[in-house]
């Protein structure tokens, strides 16, 4: 095997007979960084100038073909050659170029394959143009070549959804020409390329493909996608740019379309949404790198126990059953156990009713579910999650039983939302096995899992928490012990900021509308109505005795709860929900209650603009986020970001509250807080970390390096 062309170590061309095999070897995912682009361009140049080369085969080393452009390069000064130039060189090559795809061929990776003349995929292949998820559009010909190859309708669907398609579907769409058996893309690609050479197959350029020949159908697909996108894209920038780029494929010659695609791509690159979405992409990978996951291996995690069959316990049981684990549920008596089992079954019955699960599949899942009223049934399980009533004495009693029956090495987890896990751990003989696993409701749906790390826990127990998250397809965030951990602690503060604004003159409907306009699916008062006002009411009563008498306390929520208005489940809360409606209507009686409370508190109401509402709401969130990082409850600002993206509906295109703070500028956030403090210095206390960063001229991003 002779090396026949200049080689960078990331792109290795080698001669195999009359083929030039170009292997991209840029771990972990063969991203198209500048050296890969240079290597690819050089390899095509070498193939052109070597008369002995009859065809070129492009393959990826490792687990993927190419996962796309190197996302880390976005926002930096572009280095030549650009990816569109590399793709043009591939397409213009005078000798047939074949792409043999295994694993991911995504974004720029698929665009390289589309620029090749022939494409083959093995069954592991995943093809897609997921740029939309990063606030971008395919910027190396994807919006021009994909519609020509597979038609406007299929291309629009692929690009706007960003979804990955498997090899079989790629074949039926026409994205690839051939489906090979097995996993060896190189062998399959060699055989295919040799066959093409033997048959003297011509170069076949995607730019000349006829997928848009039916102009009327293409136009109809474009208009349908435009209408659908305008309705659905909720503040996102790149989807409408995708429509514009594909429109150019329909209406302009190829080269002109490429220019338009480039302009639109650069607009997306410059948008703050791109920065926010790419921050989210890396942040959700960084959270996996907690110190304990680097220091220790997880313990075995095959079987699980759940204590408590209420909403949370049953939801956690479903999450575990869905991951294929056998689950044993403990309840205090047969009646409660039957209720717990019914709570689990209800979820699957819902799926069966909607046709998303067969009764046989449900039976197979439920066969892994077992229940008992005796703790001894947990003697052999690898992990137990306690999800009983939020009372420290009740929890300690459960942990005493677990201490008695569980095998050595069993991970003992509590799903408490705010209780002191150190205290629970200290109450048993094996504190090193105790960890917090804070699921969010509904636990089988919500992606966030706070892994709460008490002082005495062993590193391998924490690592097991992360492993469980992976098994359950959840996003884990490491949190320290405090009231509310990361998420609920910060929520409590910005929720108060919202209450203050309500008493000062903004209606709950104004506040919800401003929060929705910012990009949240719901405002805080809608969330309260959905969750049930009684839960917060009970917490407020519990904390009443320890509340700082100097702190402002808005009583509107208490007045509403005193009337038995707990939100959707009672058909009224902050909103009215006539006949079980899901969307609430403003309630004049609630406005009257707020007015009365303003009078009682001696507040003269004033107007709040949408901008001021969001400045206060976000300043409260960011300031407490900074406190949480300062006190090491969250390891880095990005852990706060991921918590809010996955547990609290924070708009992903803004990257999370801390990323948003950097976007606004920390000096501005601090100035806002200092201004608000003039009215209420007890509530608005600048976080020491925020002050320090502003003094140093630094931002939250500077604290995001992995530990
Ligand atoms: C694009 O292509 C634009 C073009 O249209 C136009 C250009 C002009 N770059 O996810 P994993 C890292 S936009 C840099 O854990 P998996 C990732 O951060 C791009 N780095 O593995 C992680 O690093 P670390 C369109 C990347 O097996 C490591 O690789 N493409 C990139 O679970 C492993 O990643 C996409 O949007 C990248 N493109 O999943 C695809 N991709 O170990 C994005 C990954 O330090 N990628 N990394 O934490 C993915 O969807 C998944 O990574 C993939 C593998 C499915 C490929």
Give a topology summary.
Elements: E1 11-16, E2 19-24, H1 34-49, E3 55-60, H2 83-92, E4 97-101, E5 104-106, H3 108-115, E6 118-121, E7 126-128, H4 142-150, H5 152-161, E8 165-166, H6 167-173, E9 178-179, H7 185-198, H8 215-232, H9 238-251, H10 254-270, H11 272-286, H12 291-295, E10 304-307, H13 311-322, E11 327-330, H14 334-353, H15 359-366, E12 369-372, E13 383-386, H16 392-405, E14 411-414, H17 421-426, E15 434-439, E16 448-453, H18 459-471, E17 475-480, H19 487-504, H20 508-518, H21 524-531, H22 533-543, H23 556-562, E18 575-576, E19 585-586, H24 588-601, H25 610-630, H26 637-647, H27 657-664, H28 666-677, H29 688-696
Bound molecules: (S)-3-Hydroxyhexanoyl-CoA.
(S)-3-Hydroxyhexanoyl-CoA is lined by residues 28-29, 31, 64, 67-72, 83, 104, 106-108, 111, 130-131, 134, 136, 138-140, 142, 282, 285.
Shape: globular
Find the count of extended strands (DSSP E, 2+ residues). Answer: 19
Q: Which molecules are bound in this entry? A: (S)-3-Hydroxyhexanoyl-CoA
Q: Quick one: CATH superfamily of the largest domain?
A: 2-enoyl-CoA Hydratase, Chain A, domain 1
How many helices?
Answer: 29
CATH fold topology of the largest domain: 2-enoyl-CoA Hydratase, Chain A, domain 1
State which percent range the strand residues make up: 5-15%
Strands of the widest sheet, in order across it, are 12-11-10-13-14-15-16-17
Please write the CATH class name of the largest domain: Alpha Beta
Q: End-to-end span in angstroms?
A: 43 Å
Domains (count) = 3
**Class inferred from helices and paired strands:** alpha/beta
Largest sheet: 8 strands, mixed
* Gross CATH architecture of the largest domain: Alpha-Beta Complex
Radius of gyration, in Å, reads 29 Å
Low-confidence stretches: 1-6
Portion in helices: 40-55%
Q: Determine the mean pLDDT.
A: 96
């Amino acid at each position: 095997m002779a090396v026949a062309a200049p080689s960078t170590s990331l792109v290795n061309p080698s001669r195999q007979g009359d083929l030039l095999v170009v292997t991209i070897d840029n771990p972990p995912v063969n991203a198209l960084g500048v050296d890969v682009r240079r290597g690819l361009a050089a390899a095509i140049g070498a193939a052109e100038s070597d008369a002995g080369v009859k065809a070129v085969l492009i393959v990826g080393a490792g687990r993927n073909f190419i996962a796309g452009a190197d996302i880390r390069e976005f926002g930096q000064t572009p280095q030549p050659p650009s990816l569109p130039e590399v793709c043009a060189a591939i397409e213009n090559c005078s000798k047939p170029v074949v792409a043999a795809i295994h694993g991911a061929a995504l974004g720029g990776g698929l665009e390289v394959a589309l620029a090749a003349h022939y494409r083959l995929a093995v069954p592991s292949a995943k093809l897609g143009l997921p740029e939309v998820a990063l606030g971008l559009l395919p910027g190396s010909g994807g919006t021009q070549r994909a519609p020509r190859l597979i038609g406007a309708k299929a291309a629009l669907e692929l690009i706007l959804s960003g979804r990955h398609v498997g090899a079989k579907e790629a074949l039926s769409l026409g994205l690839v020409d051939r489906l090979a058996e097995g996993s060896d893309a190189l062998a399959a690609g060699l055989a295919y390329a040799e066959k093409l050479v033997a048959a003297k197959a011509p170069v076949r350029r995607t730019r000349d493909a006829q997928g848009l020949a039916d102009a009327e159908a293409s136009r109809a697909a474009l208009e349908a996608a435009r209408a659908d996108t305008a309705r659905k894209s909720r503040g996102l920038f790149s989807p409408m740019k995708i429509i514009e780029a594909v429109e150019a494929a329909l209406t302009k010659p190829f080269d002109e379309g490429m220019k338009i695609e480039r302009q639109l791509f650069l607009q997306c690159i410059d948008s703050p949404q791109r920065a926010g979405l790419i921050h989210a992409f890396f942040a959700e990978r960084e959270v996996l790198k907690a110190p304990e996951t680097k220091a220790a291996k997880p313990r075995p995690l095959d079987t699980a126990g759940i204590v408590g069959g209420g909403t949370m316990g049953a939801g956690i049981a479903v999450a575990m059953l869905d991951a294929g684990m056998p689950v044993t549920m403990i309840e205090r008596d047969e009646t409660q156990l039957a209720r717990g089992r019914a709570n689990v079954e209800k979820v699957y019955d819902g799926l069966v009713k909607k046709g998303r699960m067969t009764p046989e599949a449900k039976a197979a899942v439920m066969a892994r579910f077992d229940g008992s009223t005796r703790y001894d049934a947990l003697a052999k399980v690898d992990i137990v999650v306690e999800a009983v009533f939020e009372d420290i004495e009740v929890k300690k009693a459960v942990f005493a039983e677990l201490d008695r029956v569980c095998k050595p090495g069993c991970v003992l987890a509590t799903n408490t939302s705010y209780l002191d896990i150190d205290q629970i751990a200290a109450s048993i003989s094996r504190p090193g096995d105790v960890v917090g696993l804070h699921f969010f409701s509904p636990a089988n749906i919500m992606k966030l899992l706070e892994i709460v790390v008490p002082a005495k826990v062993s590193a391998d127990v924490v690592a097991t928490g992360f492993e469980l998250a992976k098994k359950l397809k959840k996003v884990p965030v490491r949190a320290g012990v405090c009231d509310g951990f990361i998420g609920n602690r910060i929520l409590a503060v910005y929720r108060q900021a919202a209450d203050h604004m309500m008493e000062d003159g903004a209606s709950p409907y104004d506040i919800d509308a401003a929060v929705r306009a910012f990009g949240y699916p719901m405002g805080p008062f809608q969330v309260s109505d959905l969750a049930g006002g009684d839960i917060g009411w009970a917490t407020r009563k519990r904390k009443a005795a320890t509340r700082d008498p100097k702190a402002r306390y808005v009583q509107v929520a208490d007045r509403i709860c005193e009337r038995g208005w707990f939100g959707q489940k009672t058909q009224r809360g902050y909103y009215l929900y006539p006949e079980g409606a899901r969307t609430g209507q403003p309630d004049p009686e609630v406005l009257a209650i707020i007015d009365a409370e303003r009078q009682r508190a001696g507040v003269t109401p004033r107007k709040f603009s949408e901008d001021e509402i969001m400045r206060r709401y976000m300043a409260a969130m960011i300031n407490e986020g900074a406190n949480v990082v300062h006190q090491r409850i969250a390891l880095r600002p990005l852990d706060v970001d991921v918590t809010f993206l996955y547990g609290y509906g924070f708009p992903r295109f803004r990257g999370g509250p801390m990323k948003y703070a950097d976007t606004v500028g920390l000096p501005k956030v601090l100035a806002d807080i200092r201004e608000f403090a003039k009215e209420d210095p007890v509530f608005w206390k600048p976080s020491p970390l925020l002050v320090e960063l502003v003094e140093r001229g630094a931002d939250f991003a500077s604290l995001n390096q992995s530990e």
